[in-house]
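Changelog-adjacent note: as of this version, every example in the card shows the full chain rather than a window. The one below runs 221 residues end to end.
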Amino acid sequence: MQTGHRKDGSRVKKDRKLQSNQIINWIQFIVLLLALWFILSGIFELKFIAYGVCTCLIISFICLNHLTIKKKHSSAEYFILHLYWPRLIVYFLWLFKEIINAALYVSKVVLFQRDKLDPHIIWFRADYKNPVASVLLANSITITPGTVTVDILPGGIFAVHALTDELAEGLADGGMQKKVAKAFGENIEVVNLEYVYDESLAEPKYTRLKKTKFSGRAKSL
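Full-length structure tokens:
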């Protein structure tokens, strides 16, 4: 972690992953493109190396700005290649195991235990700083058999369709959400929801999430 100073002189920690140095980002992107070029081509003649370098320079210059994203309602910028790669590898190995287990479980339920089928929507809040973490969680849920991410509302509120109560409970315990947070160097609190407090109304009140229409997202959530 890096440290900085507030106006009052006190020190404050800064997450290096939130910093966006365009020159460093560009160099990292070029190195990645060159590595892919040599791995996929397998040709190391001087002429092809020159082609590869020129191509990677042009592509990186054109695409660099598209790899920097901002979170809504925040000034923080994130370069999508600034990731904790060892932690992500561990996470993907764990996710692969979970996909296999879920596939076996769903197959057993569909073939032999159809009375356990109880499709329904569950809601939880997992508000990540990095938008890429939300994307990873949403896709991880969807590719795991038996669960599908239906929508992500503002404020990190996820709507997930679960095929059975067991699958819903597996998400409710927050294990996957926290593993994604750890892969991105974050620490979040997972909250299971049934109601949300809507302050945008003339008379603020709690709105039941199960009645929320996906086509009409409430920006205040």
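Structural remarks: The chain has six helices and ten strands.
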